[in-house]
Specification:
It comes from Vitrella brassicaformis. By secondary structure, the protein is an alpha/beta fold. Helix content is 31%, strand content 19%. It contains eight helices and eleven strands. Helix 2 packs across helix 3.
Length: 248
């Protein structure tokens, strides 16, 4: 994402749980020149092979990219096609200078869910993301340069774009990127462990995550364990659904 922004390329990151049909729809609409993908994703109880989903999406799509760059993960190595190249093959590339763009130059395309019809691509420009992101961290979240913000989301959603990648970095903050689930990777204390280990000041999380953490740890034993190491933790932001009294 940051590399694309540096050279003025437009990125469109998608949720890792999409199937071939959903990928084909977005490939046809955004018409990417290059697709980057991992060979698999890691869930709590299983490994999800991504490459067959990507191949299926490309077979259904009318648009074909120039190349697909694949990161082979040891948990599930993918079979490659003539369209593919390995992530490691890019290591010999030479750095290039940043490319100046106008303030309204597109930064990324992010698609709506498609629950009411064809997914719609929403275009965000550079200046809009910079101004809102840099403003939001101190004003909305109370985070100042040098402090740590943990956006516990999927990078394929808008919270991932803003609260995991762009906004904290634009404001001079550290950002936490966590691969895992609220429970099962390995236990319902994972989020609190990361908060304690990274000196997180504010956590942004969905109410669904709090519900499953409470379900698997009804007495809060894990947060009691990590709380002595969470002196810097000040604020919990919850959004993305109805919270309700019990998890609150």
């Amino acid at each position: 994402m940051l590399a694309c922004a540096r050279i003025g390329a437009i990125h469109s990151v998608v949720f890792g749980g999409f199937g071939a049909k959903e990928l084909a729809t977005r490939i046809n609409d955004s018409q990417p020149k290059v697709i980057l993908a991992a060979s698999c994703g890691i869930e709590a109880q299983k490994v999800v092979a991504y490459k067959p989903l990507l191949d299926g999406g490309l077979a259904m799509a009318t648009h074909e990219p120039h190349k697909c760059v694949i990161l082979q993960r040891p948990q599930c190595e993918a079979s490659l096609t003539p369209l593919d190249m390995l992530w490691e093959d890019l290591f010999s590339a030479q750095p290039v200078d940043a490319v100046p763009v106008t303030s309204n130059h597109p930064l990324y395309i992010l698609y709506t869910s498609g629950t009411t019809g064809q997914p719609k691509g929403v275009v965000r420009d550079h200046a809009g993301q910079i101004v809102s992101g840099k403003f939001a961290m101190p004003t909305c979240y109370g985070i100042n340069p040098g402090e740590t913000f943990f956006g516990a989301s999927d990078v394929g959603w808008i919270v991932g774009h803003t609260c995991m990648v762009y906004s904290p970095l634009l404001a001079g903050c550290a950002t936490v990127m966590y691969e895992g689930k609220p429970v099962g990777t390995p236990n319902p204390g994972s989020i609190w462990r990361v908060v304690s280990e990274t000196n997180t000041k504010a956590l942004f999380i969905a109410p669904t995550a709090l519900r499953v953490m409470r379900r698997d740890d009804p007495n809060g034993e894990y947060i009691k364990h990590y709380k002595p190491k969470m002196d810097q933790f000040q604020t919990l932001f919850v959004a993305g659904g109805r919270l309700g009294p019990p998890p609150f």
